[in-house]
Amino acid sequence: MEILSLGEKIKKLRKEKNLTLKELAGDRITAAQISHIERDKSHTSYELLEYLGEKLDVSVDYLLETKEMQSKKLTDNMILKSEIYIKSNQIEKAEQEIKEVLSICEKYNLIENYGKCNFLLATINLKKGNNNDAVTNFEKSLHFFIKNNDKESIFKCYLNIGKVYMDEKFYNGAISHFNFAEEVLRESKIEDISIYQDLYSKISYCYIKLDQPQKSLDYIAKISELNRQGNSKEEVDVLVLRANNMLNTGKYEEAREYFDKALAILEKEENKTELAVIYLTIADTYRKMGNTEKFLEYSQIAYDIKKNDEDDYMINSLCNMIRAYIELGEFEIARKYCKIGLASSIKSRNRYNEYRVLKFYADIYKAQNNYEVAIEYISKCIDIVEGLNDTKILADLYIELGELYSGSSKEKELEYYQKGVFMYKNLDII
Prior knowledge:
This protein is mainly α.
């Protein structure tokens, strides 16, 4: 779609219909007047526009559309196309489309759509894992949404920035932005209960992580005040938050009661992922209590639910089971599940999970006093972790490798201890 002035439209339409200036003018006006109109050198009356629209088979509304109006319509459609590209995971096409939209927005001062483009760029950066760039784009879009007083979009920006900070474990920053989002909600007089519940759940979670259980409970109480009748997802969220608060204060039995209630709801809905999350959390509860058998039992349930999905929940439950079997001295069973975990990690090309499973192999052989094979597996882990650029894990592996060499090579023991200690010092651990 081209963005044309009135004169450019008339000239284009006339040529498409193979009309001369004289033929378009007819008995109404002169060819010279048409020429002036086509060069935007002359104004026209509404009656003349009706005449020209009839001759050219277009509406008067189309002829009257300004370049700004056309650019708004064009960019609206291009933005929709970009959203489709993003949802279809065609990121490069989406970026190209957004760049074109931005150039049009700058030319015609389309504030609202300029903000939308930055919001979409932020979404793309989130997909790419570029959290810092995503926050920058959200902040840019905020500037334009505030200018345009677009409350809904302002809320989304604050909410998304808060979510990024929450993912990065910057919980104070997350809470600040969630609070801004709540202010916008109240100003907008939005009454959608689920929006408030989601927001309060996130704030409560952040306070749990900041070890401020009372503030977390305050927001859980706010959720409880809302009408959640018939909305099982929100009810589950509240129960899980209450359970997590109990966990953080060491009230394991009370936590389990809340988890059981959440499970009863989820089992009715057959929500596999949320069900697995609950079982994994219960498993973690028993691990903190030192009950390895119960830890294994609930990890096994989570694994049975997710074993065909090969996602993070599957691998986490599998790793729990391997850890439990090692603690129980069931090394052959642990090895069997290590084999499954390694195959899944290689298939999904997840190097971190591959490292996790290989480390379990090392733990098995170490527990069986087969230090030579344990060393081989720790060395494989080091090769992987060096590529992951995780200094803390790498330092731990060097220290463990030094320990394994303590009975066979004092030279290598000292070498790897020194490497680990050097890294700990750089991380300010020692």
